[in-house]
Amino acid sequence: MKENILPAIRNMRDLERLTKTDYKACVLLDMHIGHLKSIMELLKRQGIACYIHIDLIKGLSHDEFACEYIIQQYKPKGIVSTKTKVIRKAKSLNTLTIFRVFIIDSQALTRSIELIKKVEPDFVEVLPGIASKAVNQIQKETSTPVIAGGLINDENEVQEAVSSGAKYVTTSYQKLW
């Protein structure tokens, strides 16, 4: 099950904890642009690949130009965003993409499936990650690998998400790392 966890790093404590594990990939959330260079250098030294959530980088616009800058300057393994323009830009720069969608009702599910088909990301992150029905339907209808995230804080929820078709589970709940 551990191979299905993708640690979500929200702060320096999380980053420090990550470096003491054997994980080789993570997602950076809620980071300040001024800290990004040193964080990326540390992750590179540790051999940890990083997906950067563009929408959550403080001090940076959340558009395709910021995406291009981040890719050129920091060379992350991938980009995470809720914005189709950002996903398209990252794809055009040959960078892995994670399209994050929020499923709050059936209309959001239908709209998300349409967008996934249109944008064709490498992965789609479905929030909340405990929404196994949505994970299963998106995985079936789009054949895009799904990452489940949000509100996952026990092993049963990880297993349920994976059983529903999620390839990975993002969690900031350190006890699952």
TrEMBL record:
Pfam families with a match to the protein in the record: G3P_antiterm
Keywords for the protein's UniProt record, in alphabetical order: Glycerol metabolism, RNA-binding, Transcription, Transcription regulation
Name listed for the protein in its UniProt record: Glycerol uptake operon antiterminator regulatory protein
Keyword set includes Transcription regulation: yes
Role description: Regulates expression of the glpD operon. In the presence of glycerol 3-phosphate (G3P) causes antitermination of transcription of glpD at the inverted repeat of the leader region to enhance its transcription. Binds and stabilizes glpD leader mRNA.
The species this protein was found in: Staphylococcus caprae
Keyword Nucleotidyltransferase: no
